[in-house]
Amino acid sequence: PDEMPAHWMTWFLVADCEASAASITEHGGSVVRAPEEQSVGISAVVTDPWGAVFGIIQSDQADGQPPR
After folding, report:
1. What is residue 60's three-state secondary structure?
2. Which residues pair with 30 in a beta bridge?
3. Coil, strand, or helix at residue 23?
């Protein structure tokens, strides 16, 4: 959106997106966008306890190759 300034977002590949999101909240972080199905897998946007935003993604395509 126009109101969002340019930025970078780091994504981490996880084995289980929902379990990882739950673990993040248990350790003081928060979920910005709950895990949901995407074309490349299940993803969520979360923060660490200090507010840094990052993404987590669970993908069946995780063979080390970028999505096609």
Report:
1. coil
2. 47
3. helix
d(CA 65, CA 54): 21
User: Is the entire prediction scored with pTM above 0.90?
Assistant: no
- Side chain identity at 33, as an amino acid letter? R
pLDDT tens for residues 18-46? 999 999 999 999 999 999 999 889 999 99
Give the number of other CB atoms < 10 A from CB of residue 5: 5
- The torsion angle over the Cα atoms of residues 63, 64, 65 and 66, rounded to 10 degrees, is 110
Whole-number Å distance between alpha carbons of 47 and 58: 17
CA 40 from centre of chain: 12
